[in-house]
Amino acid sequence: MARPGLRGMPMTSLRIGLLGGSFNPAHEGHRHISLFALQRLRLDAVWWLVSPQNPLKAVEGMASFDKRFASAEGVALHPRIEVSDIEARIGTRFTADTLRVLRQRYAKHRFVWIMGADNLIQLPRWCDWTKIVEMVPIAVFARPGYSQRSLFGIAAHRYRRNRLPDRAAADLASRKAPAWVFLHTPLHSASATEIRANWSSVAEHTSL
Q1: Secondary structure class of 55 (helix, strand, coil)
Q2: What is the Cα–Cα distance from 180 to 207, expressed in whole angstroms?
Q3: Is the dihedral angle over the CA atoms 52, 54, 59, 62 positive or is it negative?
């Protein structure tokens, strides 16, 4: 399994985007956002942090970690996108704890947390969510049906004075947290819900 930062990565300071999630399954939308983030945020790499089990998501319908990790490896397929099992290895369940470990282990790197507008809405439900915002800069990517609500949500309102204009995105990794940007991205049709349905269809077919 991939171990971020250990595959010939130089010890000099790098700008790393962190995309956490269940990847249930990973799909081209994840890759689309990652490639866009590499460009707009001027990142050296994006690490996909595959969660052993998202505390806010039901276990039912969740594929095994190995299956989800394999799906991420099969989709990433880019030299600057690394799929990581670090949360499984260090035993963290919450993003705040994972970030603390990453910042300690890779103290020279500059991290940016990447999330969709839907997650900005529910961010106040995350454990130690204000500490997350105050640990690393955040790049929020628009999602149809969520963008407007997210900008009027609790998290956006609380940190409204720390929002940067989208033209500052390229400098986000160098900013001291709290700092965040909201970016509009070209739409991508991939949906994890649809892909899970396809997984189920395949499973049902093979069991006949």
Answers
A1: coil
A2: 47
A3: negative
* 10 inside domain: no
Q: Which residues contact 104 (CB under 8 A, 6 or more apart)?
A: none
pLDDT for the residue numbered 208: 31
* CB-count burial class (<10 Å; 0-12, 13-18, 19+) for 13: middle
**pLDDT band for position 57 (50/70/90)?**
confident
Beta strands 45-50 and 81-84, pairing class: parallel
**Which residue type is seen at 90?**
I
Give me the number of domains the chain comprises: 1
CATH number of the structural domain spanning residue 165? 3.40.50.620
39: in domain: yes
Q: Is residue 6 included in any domain, yes or no?
A: no
Nearest to 44 by CA among 174, 166, 140: 174
Q: Is the dihedral of CA 111, 112, 114, 117 positive or negative?
A: positive
List the structure tokens of 160: 């409204």
Rounded CA-CA distance 70/157 in Å is 38
* Residues contacting 125, CB < 8 A, separation 6+: 56
Residue 3 belongs to some domain of the structure: no
Please write the tens of the pLDDT for every residue from 59-70: 788 999 999 999
The number of C-alpha atoms within 13 Å of 160 and in the hemisphere containing its C-beta is: 7
Domain of 47 in residue numbering reads as: 15-207
Q: DSSP string of 187-201?
A: -----HHHHHHHHHH
